[in-house]
Amino acid sequence: MTTRAISATAATAEHSPVRRRSGPLAGAVIACWALLCRDLRVVLRSRSQLYSSLLLPLMLLAVLGIGISDGLEPSSSVIRDGDYVSYLAAGMIALTALFSSTFSSASFYRDRDSGMLRTVLASPHSPRTIFLGKALAAIVIGSVQALVLLAVAVVIPGIDLDWQYGWLGGFGMVIAAVLLLNLLLSGFALVVATRIRTMQGFHLVMNLVLFPLFFLSGAFFPLGDLPGWLYVIGLANPLSYAVDALQVAAYAADTRGFIGPAIDFAVLGGLAVVLFTLGLKRSPQVI
Amino acid sequence: MGRSINGTDTLDAFDGQLNGLLSTVQEANTATQEAVVALERACFRYAGGYGVRDITLDLPAGAIFGLLGPNGAGKSTILSLAAGSRAPQEGAVRVLGSSLAEKGNDRLRARVGVLFQDTSLDPLMSVRETLWLHGRLFGLAAGDLHARIGELLVLIGLSDRSSDAIGALSGGMQRRLELARAILHWPDLLLLDEPTLALDPDSKVALWQLLQSVNAQGTALLVATNDVAEAERYCHTVAFLDAGRLVRSGTPAELKRGLRRDSVRVEWADPPDAIEGTLSAWEGVGSVTRAGPHLHATVDDASVFVPRLFAFAQGGIRAVQIHESTLEDAYFQAVRHPFAPNGRE
Questions:
Q1: B30 within a domain of the structure (yes/no)
Q2: Spatial distance between the Cα atoms of A89 and B155, rounded to a whole number of angstroms
Q3: Which pLDDT belongs to residue A283?
Q4: Do B104 and B167 form a contact (C-beta atoms < 8 A)?
Q5: Are strands B64-68 and B237-242 parallel, antiparallel or unpaired?
Q6: Cβ pair B65, B236 in contact under 8 A
Q7: Could you give the CA distance from residue B66 to residue B223 in angstroms, rounded to a whole number?
Q8: pLDDT in tens, A209-232
Q9: What is the interface size between A and B, counted as CB pairs within 8 Å?
Q10: Both B158 and B90 in a single domain?
Q11: Percentage above 90 pLDDT, chain A
């Protein structure tokens, strides 16, 4: 195409009026939705991120679960009949959410480095709206992936989930727990991302904080069987409440030996709101 | 800028007519509307020093206003003040009658478009998705947006590439896409930071023609550039910036007023003291500026001046450059050092 062709076309372009949606709230909702759709599309195109978030928990479920079930035959007040694979399933759902949410939140840095973040922040929305839209995307992506892992776990013949509140009630609780966990993780990621300038630093903090917390969350072993001091640390760990809620909803036959859903959801909900508010309070200078 | 006749003269003549027409439109707009961007004694200081200090300038409605200066002169800082991403620490910045940096003034951004210096496209998105996201962020309704994207894709010549990933586009195409994104919401003000940086000559011309067509529709352009030729050719008004200060501003013709036809730059090992006064007194010599070993003179006829200079110098002259006087010479005269796009040495 020659430069003259561009000029000729340009001259004919009409400066026509636009109908814009009224009201800042409607505009903010549309902006969040547009960012959510965009991030979902990008994640669907980042196959490696998609697969790695699911494959590691599935591999742990298969290798660690079967290995410990058959090799050690663990007995515990919570683990039924040495069936460690079924016990591990709830923890792996939480791990999937953890991975996925961390990856999605790291897209903040990718968008900053590509210049995309600067562009969207130049739109007629407050940085809070933009970060809310991106956090919503992280929550949706993390939740969908965690629920995909649950669906896989349900169809694996060796995994025995009791669904003590019925299939529908239990599934509802799992969705609520997964959403709250992702909200909490996205809030935490937002707090970190708005304070740490490099992606390496972000991953370092996420790994240093989240993975030790995850090991002490009851995902790999029941908290109730731990020594007192370790049990107290476990109770101070926010991830314990997410894992507990998932175990109570899907795996457990009753609530004995668990923290219980009322406390789980109260703690998860409260912390998620606090972290999210903290994260949205501060926006980085990117332009 | 040579004096020889070549195949681009017809093109230049056409562009001259186009510029004349656009200038008329701009003057008509200017006469009826107030300043789109107004900086009043604005200062912004970074941790390492001043970005800009004591800058006062008005961008009239409908104008193409060029901020010309080397890297570090303060061009990008002025753009970020106008975009509202930074607030002046002293003085005031008003955009379209209000301050963009004020809290709760987000809606004003809907009237401003920004083209950043560095690429700001997501390589994982397609051409159409890029425009769609921007349109939704700027509140365009789906039906309007669909039509607008189609119109812009024709405008930038990417209709047949709308589904392509950004990574598959050339640098020039990406820049045109960024421009389409910046004007998607019909801004009243377009802020452009080095819009043609790293583009090949054809892509530069194509982009400027697009910018002129956008300006002809009433959008004011504030352009940061270190390309003197572009500023002279396309901008209605140019401000010379140096080390965060505004040195001089005016139309290219005003800025070049006083320059003689030819410009001569001389590198002289050890010129005598008061050489500027000596040379200025010669017949046919206009202004003479000295910056260390560099001497800059605008003269009526270089073919008369240069032999006389060599005879006067009796050795010591290392290099001489002769060209038709341009805005770059006006910059040298105003700022009193040569224009170095990458910053002063």
A1: no
A2: 55
A3: 59
A4: no
A5: parallel
A6: yes
A7: 5
A8: 888 888 889 888 888 888 889 999
A9: 127
A10: yes
A11: 23
> CB-hemisphere CA count at 13 Å for B132?
16
Average of pLDDT values for B126-152?
A: 93
Domain match, B217 and B268 both: no
The Cα–Cα gap between A63 and A48 comes to 21
ipTM of the complex model: 0.78
- State how many domains chain B has: 2
Amino acid type, B179: L
Decide which of B254, B283, B312 is a domain's last residue.
Answer: B254
Please indicate, yes or no, whether residues B265 and B237 belong to a single structural domain of this protein: no
Strands (DSSP E) contained in chain A are none
The range of the structural domain enclosing residue B297 comes to 260-324
Contacts of A114 in chain B (CB under 8 A): 119-123
> What is the structure's pLDDT at B23?
53
Which helix (H) or strand (E) segment holds residue B24: the answer is: helix B9-32
Compute CA distances B142 → A20, B65, B145, whole Å.
10, 33, 5
Residue in B closest to A37 by C-alpha? B133
DSSP label at residue B184: T
Within a domain: residue B72?
A: yes
Contact (Cβ atoms closer than 8 angstroms) between residue A251 and residue A233: no
Average pLDDT, chain A: 83
- Chain B environment of A112 (Cβ under 8 Å): none
CATH of the domain at B242: 3.40.50.300
CA gap B164, B43 in Å, rounded: 43
| Same domain flag for B193 and B144 | yes
B12-29 tens-digit pLDDT: 444 555 455 555 545 544
Is the same domain home to B83 and B120?
A: yes
Assigned domain for B156 exists: yes
* Cα B89 to the center of its chain, rounded Å: 25
- Summarised one tens digit per residue, pLDDT across range A183-193 is 998 888 888 88
In order, the DSSP letters of A72-130 are: H----SSSGGG-HHHHHHHHHHHHHHHHHHHHHHHHHHHHHHHTHHHHHHTSSS-HHHH
pTM here is 0.78
Q: Which of B81, B98, B112, B138 is the best mutation test for A, with the most CBs of A within 10 A? A: B138
- Assigned domain for B334 exists: no
Provide the pLDDT for residue A175: 94
Q: What's the average model confidence in pLDDT over B79-90? A: 90
Structure confidence by residue, pLDDT tens digits, B243-256: 899 999 999 999 98
The answer to whether B293 and B345 are in contact (CB under 8 A) is no
Please enumerate residues of A whose Cβ is less than 8 A from a Cβ of B. Answer: 1, 3, 5-7, 9-11, 13-15, 18-21, 24, 27, 30-31, 33-35, 38, 41-42, 45-46, 111, 114-116, 118-126, 285, 287
Contacts of B114 in chain A (CB under 8 A): 119, 122
A-chain CB neighbours of B29 within 8 Å are: none
CATH code for position B295: 3.30.70.100
pLDDT at A14: 43
For residues B198 and B150, membership in a common domain is answered with yes
